[in-house]
Structure formats: C-alpha cells, structure tokens
Amino acid sequence: MPGSVAPASASAASPSPDPAALYRTVRLIRRFEERAVELVRAGEVFGGIHPYTGQEAIAAGTCGALRADDLITSTHRGHGHVLAKGADPARMMAEIAGRATGLNRGRGGSMHAADFGVGILGANAIVGAAAPIATGAAWAARCAGSDRVVVTYFGDGAVSQGVVLETFNMAALWRAPVIFVCENNGFATTTRTQDAVAGSITGRAEAFGIPAERVWGMDPEAVYAATARAVARARSGEGPTLLECETYRYDAHHTWEHAARPRYRTPEEVELGRSVDPLDIQGARIDAGVRARIDAEVDVLLDEAVRFALESPRPDPATALDFLYADGTTARAGAL
Amino acid sequence: MTILSYLKALNRAVADEMERDPAVCVFGEDVRVAVTNVTAGLVKRFGEERVLDMPISEQAFTGIATGAAMAGRRPLIEYQIPALLFIAFEQIVNQAHKFSLMTGGQISVPVTYLIPSSGSRDGWAGQHSDHPYSLFAHVGVKTAVPATPADAYGLLVTAIRDDDPVVVFAPAGAMGRRADVDLAQLAPIPLGVGRIHRPGTDVTVVAIGHLVHDALEVAEELSGTIDVEVFDPRSVYPFDWQGLAASLERTGRLVVIDDSNRSCGIGGEILATAAEQMRLVAPPKRITRPDGAVLPFAEGLDRALQPTREQLRHAIHGVMKAGATG
Ligand SMILES: Cc1ncc(C[n+]2csc(CCOP(=O)(O)OP(=O)(O)O)c2C)c(N)n1
C-alpha cells in the first residue's frame, strides 16, 4: 500500500542516553562493516560497499535520540544509519549480498537499503537527493497530525548540490520537522572539504534561518545530546535544524579503492584519524564486563547474519522487473 | 450535453479527485491564483493546506512530493513549462520511479506530474517548446497524452488514482479544444487503452495528442479515395499494442504522426514494434520533429519543425502506393 510507514509507537526516546545501548550500536555497526568488507573480498557482494567505519557515533547518537516511529533517509554510506534505526542485521546483510531474503528482496543492495516497517525511507545513491524526500515526509507527517520527526543524512559533498539548498529554503519556510545531519568526514571521495565548500556548512543553513550546530561526531553522547535538542525543536513545531558532525572515515571511500589506490591522504593522516575511536570513547563509559558481554553478543548476531545471508537464495532472474509498478504493469521483454 | 473545454476538464478532474480523496494535494508555482487556470477555484474550495504555492525550486518540490507520497499524500504537481521536467528529471526518474523496484515493493510513489500547454506555443522559443513524452516512455514512467476534453478528464483522474508516478502531458495544441459531452458520462480512462476516433480499412494513422485532430481532418479530406483509421494510443507508456495490432489486421498499412523528436522517439518505437510483430503490407512511415530538434523562435522556423497535415497526406499516399505495388 502506498504511503505506509512505520506504525506509531507509544514509547518516547529516553531523555538521557543509555551508554550501553549507544556502545552496542557503535559496536554492531563496526563489526557489521568489517564482516561486510570480508564478504566483498570473498566475492559475495556484487560491486562493493562504502564502509561507514569511523563514523558510527553519528548513526548511533542520532538514531538513539529518535523514537521508533520517527523516520530517516540515508546515503550511499548508509549501513550504519539503517542498522541504528533498527533494521534486522541479517536481512541487511542478505540485501548487501543480493539475496531474496534481503530488506529489499535483493533489489536495492548496499546503496538502497530500505525498511519502511522501522521508518527507513531508503538509502539513496544520488548525493543530496534524499533531503527533499525527507522534508516531504516530514511535512506530510505533520499535516497528518503526528509529531514524528525525520532525520536526513548526507555528507559534506552534498552541501554543494542545489537541491539541498532549495530544500533548506522550503524546510525553513514550512518549519518542517526535519533534521539535516551533515556527516563531515573531510572528503567527498578524494576531494577535501575545504577545496569544495566555500564559506561554512553551518553558514549555508543559517542563511535560510535554520539553526545550525557543529558537533564532535566521534562521540556518540555528544551527537545524542545535539540530536535531542533538534528533535525537541522539531516536535514542538519550531522547524528544522542542521547538525554538522565532524568525523573521520577510517577506510576507503568504497571498497574498490583498494584496487585503484588513489593518493589523497597520507598514511600518517589516516593513522592519526583512526587514533580517535568512537568504540573506545563510548566503551570507556561502561563497565568492562558489560562491554565484553556486548562484544560477544554482537559477534554471535553477526555470525548468524552472515550465515543467514549466504544460505539465502538468490532472486530468480525471471523476476528481475518485479515491483517496478505498484499495480503490476508488466514491461515488455528487451528481446523476443 | 454541455460544452466542456480541455482546460476545464483538467480543472474538473483535479477538483473531483480532491473532493473524493483528502490525500490529494496540489504543488506548483502560482497555483493559488492559478496562472494556468488548471487550478482555478481550488484554494477557495479546499484551502491553502492542500494547494501549495512553491518557490522556484523544481528539484526540491518534486522530491518533496515523493516524500509526501511515501507518508500518505497523493500530490499532483503542476509544472508551468515542459522544460522544467528536465530540471526535475532526476527526482522523477531516478527517485520516484525507481523506489518501488529498488525497495523490493515496500513502497510506491503516487505522484502525478501535469504539464499544461506542452509542446510548441507561439513565440515561446527554444526552452519552452519541448514535448518530451518520449523520454518518459523510454525510462518507463507511465505517461499519458490526452487529445480530447473527455480523455483529459479521464486520464488525469486515472493518473491521480494510480499508485505509481504518472506524467500527464496536455499539449498546447489541444488546450483550446472543446467538446460536447455529457458531464455525467465523464469517467476514469485506463492507461494503455487506445481509442479509435475514426474507423477505416486502408491505412492506420497513429496520432498522438493534439495531432489526433490534424489526423482526423486529413482523414476526412481523403475520405472517398482512401479510408483512413485514426488510432490514438492516449498513453504512450503503457502503450496499447493490442489495439494497434488489431487495427493493422484490418488495414495492414501504418503512418505515425508524433510531435516528439525523431531519433529515439515513440514514433520509432511504434514502427519498430509493428515491423517486428504485426501485419504490414507496406513499409510504415512516421512524421515527427527532426532529430534532436530545438524549436527556433521565428514563427516560420518553429512551424517548419513540427509535423504537418501536408506531411501526413504525403505519407498516407506513400504507404498506399507502396502497398499497391508490393
Ligand atoms: C549527484 C551525485 N554526484 C556524484 C555522485 C558520485 N559520488 C558518489 S559518493 C560521492 C562523494 C560524496 O561525498 P560526501 O557527500 O562527502 O559523502 P561521503 O562519501 O564522504 O560519505 C560522489 C561524488 C553521486 N552519487 N551523486
């Protein structure tokens, strides 16, 4: 049915963060990405992935401050957002591996993972393109009388896309309950932010009257706190907020980079960037025993996810154009 | 019976659907005062919450419609000029159209994109005279090009009710049409079902949009010498291939008249499909704009690139001759 999104939930987000829950999300994303990269190397993933390693605190902190019935849109680097919002890791892994049991029945893959049942309106492979989609969903949700908010993620590269700036304008005019989360990892593929972004990222939002905040994006609790403030604003009808989360991408832009090896950052720089780790930052806030238990649980969960993915059937090629139209309109074959 | 104009038919379709379904809303530039008249009277009836003036931000509001559709609304977007589709193409083709398949059927995007006065309008020149329905057929977005007031009403209603994205082109050349209709008989018209405006036995003329009326005039002129069947597919995607095949069973000869560019246009597709799969006793012909045409400003130049009745007459005589000797 068109227009069906996550069912409304009675449970409000916790007013203060649960340190163990945040740690668990960071750990889940980290291990998920590591296992996914292994599957890429093993040839089980067609095409590769954009790993989110290093940036986990942003997904964990933002989604931690959302209610189950809030919505998100994601990006080409979307695994973390999708997991943090509550998608099943096994079905997510199956999606990446192109299996019929995947979140999108193998039709979306890494860059399009969607789960409308838990409020994920889709990862999006066109830089900046999801910002208006999130804003439209936010507008429609408010018209329907709900106090849902929508978080839309994008990178520093997206702030040079016209559609994002057009969307800032309209979201501000309409006071749409949308939170723009810019994950500034310093690069758009290989181009440094300072070489591509004139002025500042926060300034772009402020020009439209949107309050903007810079947040240390390696700390899940800092991200949580900033998100909670933005959520409160959005729910009370005050409109959008931009959060610029400063972070660092540990790995290549995409797993192909290991083959092409473009030179755009030095090994020293990568080492320095990797020395700040959201796992350690959040892990230090919880009891060592709890940390070890979570680590073990996550490993079991991901062993199961990988097993589920690899044992799942691949979709039947004869169904390759299924789901193109809601009413089952059939496309003519390309050859007779 | 009542005289219904094509414009009024569009207006009536939107109003009727807004009345029937509170999820239907209208997005566009200057839709509140209704500069194109398509949305006339809607704010008064349905309020500003459902008829929204947009900033000049086609990419953003096209994407906003996608998100709103995912959250339960059924937006209709009015674009003031057809060329704006090129700006919004990303959000229609890459986003709205692809979501259903890419999500494995989790969601569909019921947005209608309406382009009143598509194609050549006097003196509007290069960037305002496109008629890009073939592009949407090529990518598989449902696309209707109604020729008459009743079809404009019926196809627009169907588009709004459809759970997929649908583009409705209202050709400039058809906007002034009026017809005597029984308002009680106005009804949704399914996509992919063509209409034979005039039966004939010698040659099938497939005409799209406003060109249906040119084809009917030419058919009338030729009656007595050549018996022309005029077939209007009404939607170019999906296309009524069965209806065309049935027509060619009767006539065996085909001429297509299509106001889109020749290379990779729907006219070429119709010829190719007929040649591959249908009964033809003579090589088919098509009349289109030239390859990659950009309509120049000066009136004579603009007209020189559009399909004409003269060309149609010539093509009909051509297929008749070829059929007779072959
Ligand atoms: C509109 C658009 N242009 C170019 C690309 C190719 N591309 C994919 S990811 C990417 C870099 C994006 O950088 P950023 O937004 O900073 O996100 P990050 O990869 O750093 O997470 C580019 C250029 C694209 N997908 N979409």
Automatic annotation (TrEMBL), chain B:
Q: Which cofactor does it need?
A: thiamine diphosphate
Q: Which domain of life is it from?
A: Bacteria
Q: Which GO terms describe its molecular function?
A: magnesium ion binding; oxidoreductase activity
Give every Transketolase-like pyrimidine-binding domain span.
4-178
Q: Which UniProt keywords apply?
A: Oxidoreductase, Thiamine pyrophosphate
What SUPFAM superfamilies does the record tag this protein with? Answer: Thiamin diphosphate-binding fold (THDP-binding), TK C-terminal domain-like
PANTHER family annotated for this entry?
Answer: PYRUVATE DEHYDROGENASE E1 COMPONENT BETA SUBUNIT (PTHR43257), PYRUVATE DEHYDROGENASE E1 COMPONENT SUBUNIT BETA (PTHR43257:SF2)
Know the name of this protein? Transketolase central region
Record the organism. Answer: Catenulispora acidiphila (strain DSM 44928 / JCM 14897 / NBRC 102108 / NRRL B-24433 / ID139908)
Lineage of this protein's species?
A: Bacteria, Bacillati, Actinomycetota, Actinomycetes, Catenulisporales
